[in-house]
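Dear all,

This email documents one entry for the complex benchmark we are building for the journal club exercise. For each entry we list the sequence lines for every component of the assembly. Then comes the predicted three-dimensional structure of the complex as a token string, followed by one or two observations. Please use this as the template for your own entries, and keep the labels exactly as they appear.
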Amino acid sequence: MKEKIGIVNTLEERKPYITRKQEKGQEIPLACDNNSLAGAISQRACVYSGARVVLNPVTDAVHLVHGPIGCAGYTWDIRGAKSSGIETNRSSFSTDMKELDVVFGGEKKLSNAIDELVELYHPPVIFVYSTCIVGIIGDDLESVCKTASQKHNIPVIPVKSEGFKGNKSDGYKAACDALKRLIKKPPEDPTAKKSPRAPETIKPKINILGDFNVAGDVWLVKPLFEQIGIEVIVSMTGDSTAEAISRAAEADLNLVQCSGSMTYLAKWMQQEYGIPYINASFFGIEDISLAMRRTADYFGSEKMKEQAEKILETEISRIMPEITRVRERVKGKKAAIYMGGPAKALTLIKGFAELGMEVVIIGTQTGKKEDYEQISYSVRDGTVIVDDANPLELAELLVKQKADLMVAGVKERFIAYKLGIAFCDFNHDRVVEFEGFDGFVNFAREVDASISSPVWNAVRQRILKPETVEAENKLDRIEKAAVEERTSGESYAKECTNILLKPEFVHQKSDTAVESQV
Amino acid sequence: MTKRNYATVNPCVMCQPMGSALAFKGIENTMVLYHGSQGCSTYMRLHLAHHFREPVDIASSSLSEKGAVYGGRDNLKKGLRNVINRYNPKVIGVATTCLAETIGDDVPAIIREFKEEQGIGDDPEKDIIIVPVSTPSYGESHVSGYIKALDAVVRKFTEKSEEEKSIKIPNGKLNVIPVESLSPADVRELKEIFEVMSEDYIFLPDISETFDAPLREDLPKIAQGGTPLSEIADMPNSRASLGLGIVSKNLAVKYLEETHNVPGYNVPIPIGLSNTDSFFIELVKILGCPIPEKYQKERGRLLDAMVDVHKYLYGVKAAIYGDPDLVFSLTTFMLELGMNPVLVATGSKNRDFEAKIKQTVEIINPEIEPVVLNGIDFDTLNDAVRECNPEILIGNSNGKYIAKALNIPLVRVGLPIHDRVGAQRILTVGYRGAMELLDSITNTILEATDTFTAPVQAGPAVYTGEISEKDCVEGMR
């Protein structure tokens, strides 16, 4: 179906990035995986941010930002990733480059800063992030880090994250490259141990890649595997330590959750150490079950499979009454998803289905073609799919698609709120776990609380208008004009007016009118 | 801890472009564009959205590797074009970042070129005004970014030929320009004072609505409110300029004085008794009208409140940190209340900070000797707090780590405040602001020191028998 005026008003160059769900087998006509358009107000951050969000949860590392103060300041403890021990990662370290450093080079300052931080914090590893300016003035991070590494006898790892050298996805890659340097060769011959073995004799080991322990997620996931006799060596990078990461190559299998950031590392571990990986998600009943069953199947032990089934049965019957209760309250509501990476977006579609909700908008900052194809197959007809959306597009989509709830991060929150639409943070800012069985209960409850709050009724009346006959007549005239405008096929959020749009409920009356005319 | 000379641990400042946004966002129908990489705008939007709890749209020229090598001209032009297309602003503030500055883009020249290509003139009535400001992140701090952006705006809107400058059409107005970003509540309070004192004032920048927007029936692309452009252009015709803040140099006030002969007066940010007094005294001098009864009463109430709390606050050791002028004014107030500001610190590097603080201490309570720190990070503050042993911390929410670690209560004032709601409604200026601050500080201290104990139970013999209501009432007397 071709829409006359496009799905939303936007810049010509942005139009290829917004489409609707396609039929199965049809190639999705969606542009993606490009640099953001100047002036379009992308919700994406930069290469540095991509690297930082992936590595930041490494709890005992000193995360040293080599650059001007801003880059470190704005990323100070924003990840919401919890630690079960040391919390060095919650401090913000910077070389605070000044004009003189830019002119004469910052290598000396960096090397001195590393010396100071080693003395003060005795970290097992230092990640040194390069920022835009370092890429321009050409400080040789590799050599400074190498020297420091030898001097202090700890890994000092440069993270090549100059902000302008690509987009957030390139930052993920830079982070994985840094992790690669931390992973040690396992003690015995690695090729001998990578086939699934009988867990009765040796305990199988896995890593969880792409779980960042936001609000303590990993602590609800690890036990599920431990209970079926699997050892989780490390979760990357949520609640991880340099030591645990260094042992990652001892694993028999990698479970990859955040595929956008970690597939690159998983592939490398497969190539280098023969460790296979499977994609998994620990959110929602269906995906958790799938993850556990696939893992148990991989190791092939009947005992393990049985244990997994038993746990699933107990856990599901434990949480189901609460899920059913919430489902009754929220079913039929429409959700909008805008996520950083595609894996979370995909698993959320299933999660919403389990709550009886449908997804009407779905977008990501860093999805790739194949991700969007998968997304397209997973959503209902009419769902809008968008890559690298901006605030104006999101606002208009929320109104046009009549979303009841948006799931995204902080920057999107206030767009939804201004429109009177419920919002649920599935990013760094949430305070409760969403993964695992109890996490899904938390999620369901938050969705319910977000949608059911009486504040949404209150905000429908934004102007207090004691009614008079005259006022009613005037209102009628305005509404009629709005109907005419809409039926004439023109958008009501015209280009070059400063009013973006009105919240959905302001249109409700005229919308019904339009439908009845059709 | 060891003294550090090279590594910064937990920064107490933000970078210059951030300050420019705080200024630009207080101007009517204005968009901000950062010339640099995509992340700068996103991070600062996030930071501001967290603090004000409002959507904050800031564009970026999204420089890529190609832009960094061959110059950001094309990206900047495209960014401007797209912002105009989508937001239809009246003003675009273009702030540079470290990337744009280091690759050496001549931003004013690119903007001139862009305007020529697009046929954009210089008439604020019908043309989009583009205001460039140089704010590399490696220079100074967000405080200087804010001051520079305001200076650039005033210059841009008051550009006149020498001949025009001599022709003045006095408007009888008073320009008011704070040297640091105040909260929307503060701006609202100040505007109310000016409205009561004299209707004729121009407040720049007015973030009272842009960063604290009411829910409206429609969602404007650019938050409504802000200083009207016509008023900014009218600033050279004003009778005087009042700069709020005396530690940092108010470039816009200085420029209006030197170039347009508008006499400039600088008073401390009116926080606390004497600072608010100086503010009103200066207003009376400039406007020639008496202090309205309303404020005499408010002042009286503040005095009453100060008397009420003096025992709780006397000698209480406080650590105050944040932006230089805010800290200066807060310190003055703490001294007036009889508190002992043992530690006074700012993250910005400011030449005059120490001298100004010492001066105010000398005037109000020469007996005390606060530790005054300049250009610090939070780790240094942490060490200093351990040494000075304050009973209360006063500053932004980034002090929460110290507060938690050392179990010292924190009163949140300033920017950013990310872990509590209501940052946009924190009122500190004027007599009312002083009262709110005083209540909040006193109650925080009371909360921390109040060890609630259940009423002591008397021996059972006395109370086991039935006591009549009469006895109870009697007993209470």
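Observations: Confidence is low (pLDDT under 50) at residues 486-496, 509-518 of chain A. Residues 469-517 of chain A form one domain.
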